[in-house]
Amino acid sequence: MGELLGECLSDAGAWRLDLLQSKFKPGRKLTAYYRLAPARPSPPTAGEDGVRARHLAVTWSVDRQPAASAMPGTGRPQPPFERLVTASEDGRIVVRICPDDPAMPQLPRLADPGHLAGLVADLCGRRFATRQLTVDTVRYRPGQRHVERVRLDGHPWMYVKTDRDCSGARAVAVATYLRDLVGQHPVHAAVALPLGYVAEDAAALWWNVPGVPLSTRLRAPRADGSVRAVAQAGRVLRVLHESPTGPESLRDRGGPEAVHVEAEETLRAGEHVRALLPDVGPAYEDAVEQVVEELDRMPGEAAVVSHGDFKSDNLVVGDDRLTVLDLDRAAWADPARDLGKLLADLHWWCPDPSAATVLGRSFREGYGACDPARWGRARLWTALFRLRMTARRLPVHDVDWADRARGGVADVVEGLRASRGS
Length: 422
Hints:
Blueprint: H1 2-8, E1 15-25, E2 29-38, E3 54-61, E4 85-87, E5 93-97, H2 107-110, H3 113-124, E6 133-141, E7 145-152, E8 158-163, H4 167-183, E9 189-191, E10 194-198, E11 203-207, E12 212-213, H5 214-219, H6 225-241, E13 251-252, H7 258-269, H8 271-276, H9 281-297, E14 304-306, E15 315-317, E16 322-324, E17 331-333, H10 335-349, H11 353-367, H12 372-393, H13 401-419
Parallel strand pairs: 9-16, 13-17
Antiparallel strand pairs: 1-2, 2-3, 3-5, 4-5, 6-7, 7-8, 8-11, 10-11, 12-15, 14-17, 15-16
């Protein structure tokens, strides 16, 4: 990989690689995502891409990949980079440097401050000189999704999100609808403010939300702030679930087949767990099967307006309110799914069972009274999401991955066993 990086960057030795994430698909490929930064960083200067960190993706494939070539037009490499993509002689190792992505040719445009300045002017009427914009990569996932942070000199930041489908358009429409809805209730919460959606670039633009993600608070929880924030999360989620109507763009993900779709996704997420830990794989699969069987036997209820990805990373805690982010998965769905997602997330950030229990109780109190069957289903959704989080969130490259994966699956299995009294 070092040799390939040297083909893209003549002074590769002067840069360091920070591994951000790895993804292993048994029998197919291993992908690693890195942050590339100067080994001895100097203060960034507007317009000097060379001093700022860049992101890259490296894929090792079982099968030979198509020939890689640099993207044309605005995808041309800028100094100090000589190429944005290269591959090994056998075609099984491919290195891509942001903004290269043949599946999403709009990314080079969205990395161009001049192009972004034009989009901002079109969407909100504010005009900025190109030199006033600084673009940084937050997430670089070729073929999937990209997120950029745009710093506007003397003005609030914004974020640009682009993906391969129209989920950004849905997110903007849902956010616009829910901002009005949430604003009508005294829940000390809000919904992220979009600038708008640009169909030509498949990009949604959002104003930055002041504050810190709830997940940051949960890493070092205080009895006061974390408990209050989780209660706020329950209150604002109840507002969504009680909405009698929703935007036209809202998809339907309700019905008895929904849990089977989620179960299949959880099994796919755990393919590497079953391959690398054959002693854990059967327990993982059995737990998924048990959740599906129990949910199939339980009475359901009408689908409601749901967030779709209600987790602490998507909840920003400010001075006096909680702001809800990332509505691209919003849909008509079982309300217990949202409840289970956040409860699983609380377990993830608070491995101490007693702390997770306290926060879960606060979330439930904030959400308010409802049919007990909803919380019964939420318990099972929690188990399903905890399995998926174990598979997706634990970095497979970490030296303690095996122990943590075993422990995560065992905790879910034990919880399911205890809940059925056996």
